[in-house]
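S.,

As promised, the s-citryldethia Coenzyme A run. Input:
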Amino acid sequence: MTNQTSTAKLSFGDKELELPMYSPTAGPDVIDISKLYAQGDVFTFDPGFTSTAACDSTITFIDGEKGELLHRGYPIDQLAEKSHFLEVCYLLLYGNLPTAAEAEDFEYRVTRHTMVHEQMTKFYSGFRRDAHPMAIMVGVVGAMSAFYHDSTDIADPWQREVASIRMIAKMPTIAAMAYKYTIGQPFVYPRNDLDYASNFLNMCFSVPAENFEVNPILSRAMDRIFTLHADHEQNASTSTVRLAGSSGANPFACIAAGIACLWGPAHGGANQACLEMLKEIGTVDRIPEYIARAKDKDDPFRLMGFGHRVYKNFDPRAKVMKQSADEVLDLLGVENNPTLQVAKELEKAALEDPYFTEKKLFPNVDFYSGIILEAMGFPTSMFTPIFALSRTVGWISQWKEMLNDPKQKIGRPRQLYLGETLRDYVDVENR
Ligand code: SDX
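Predicted complex:
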């Protein structure tokens, strides 16, 4: 609940306004400008929302200066080390860590929603085999609203709950099916005897022709990658889901919108772009050439996997991801992976370069995740689908929070108009 703790005075022209201010449990105070237009006949202007809080939330908090990421108050490094993805899903959805009984019930409910309607398999055959898996996921997830009518009424709390469980449960199946389709292998059904991460790896890498055993170290690393990507405050794709949800759109349509936004290389598409960049660099001796390009204002090239809108010291997720990268590559006997060598040397070179340190451009979550996923056998085109799969619980948790907010209304930003003012139509013969 937002309680006024102080007042901001704003004076311009002949106006002297007093705006309420609220203090958070963590982070900066906020100035409530919701009445500014009515009282002052002016808009605020904040492209990219660098200084704008679009909502209040109790789910995730980021301190960009300290490199801190909390999910319902629990730091990400402790969750990555001591918890597991489905427990983090419960925490994000319901606000507290589950008891053993609550965890068992939640895992039972998710596990038994992992299959998709058999008719949905027909959607995949409409795509070219070389379709990007993200294109498939946007389409298939949006189409879920044509299959699960009994969980599209957002006014019904029970239907919101069922839709939430269905989304978390079915995204791995949908992502794995997208992968299998693009490599021409048969879909693999989910298995209820496997944990969430092992089930996903089995659906991606097992084939009917032989038995497949999921390596527990790889499934642990996979589970940790899911946890590290689960939620992240009001990032671009989460804000997209909230804005879509504010119109009353059904949850599957909202998640499809979030997937579409996440696809961009400045956001979730960065893990694919980062690995492709590391491969393009190829060898350690070519790193200076690329660092020079990243610093060149006339060159649109940016170091993918570096920089963040909020983190201005380090991304705590990147630190955990780097540990996992070392574990997985040691296990797979590819600790001398040339891409990993380039990544480590690039990180070192960038962090010694004043351009990056002064602009506070440090490795973000996407910098090491691609190296782990490639070592596991995923093509780069599957990196962002895995990010989307992980972030679904964050999107859904934020979507539910928005719907439960009594202040909630349809999102409708205004603008600074710089176009033509009123003018009359001119017939073509007079132009
Ligand atoms: C994710 O919001 C989230 O929480 C996102 C995310 C999540 O979990 O949801 O954390 C996931 O999206 C991580 C970010 C992945 N994206 C990338 O790795 C792509 C490369 N990074 C950049 O595109 C950029 O750093 C952003 C988009 C991530 C952040 O950009 P900002 O904060 O809007 O900063 P900016 O674009 O205004 O850049 C500030 C300065 C600029 O130089 P000047 O104009 O001030 O001279 O830093 C430079 C930029 O040119 N800069 C870079 C750079 N990133 C910013 N220069 C070289 N390489 C880079 N990567």
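The pocket of s-citryldethia Coenzyme A is lined by residues 232, 235, 266-268, 270, 294, 302-309, 359, 361, 364-366 (CB under 6 Å). The longest strand covers residues 4-12.

- D.
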